[in-house]
Amino acid sequence: MLKCxxxxxxxxxxxxxxxxxxxxxxxxxxxxxxxxxNCNIINDSKLLSEKKRNNAYDIIVxxxxxxxxxxxxxxxxxxxxxxxxxxxxxxxxxxxxEITPELLLIDGNHFKxxxxxxxxxxxxxxxxxxxxxxxxxxxxxxRDKLMIKLHNEFNDYKWNNNKGYPTKFHRKMIExxxxxxxxxxxxxxxxxxxx
Length: 195
Known about the structure:
single chain; alpha/beta; 6 helices; Nucleotidyltransferase, domain 5
């Protein structure tokens, strides 16, 4: 069972999904959970099956004190780079919280201060603290739904399965068809061939 970071402070966990994808937006979430929140299935979203993630998503949405989602599209990612886009998405997610947190717990080791709110970066935080894990689930499930919508527009790339990540099949289809309007043009879309 993951830990609650603090019983005294209003803590918001923050995480993003889609950073390593070749397509579409990066999505971040920020979640404030009740101090007595207890749910055994919540864990790092990457460790959960799709069914468990979806169940956890519903529980978090219904039982959280507040949550926010921030989306930065592929055009902005190409303009400002994926790290800055991920941080901007987190800032957007935090701005949508109904309560101002006293501390932000950020998954990873990079963040830019949000207003005057204190923050702490925690590497692999989604495996340590429940509020970050909850944010990782919200971001992942929300982004997966967006990728299924994009798949319905461009179904040759099978984004419903790979969610835009660089699988062998996905790269092969980019080579065959070229990039779609949703591909991140600043990314290495096809595999480099060693000479």
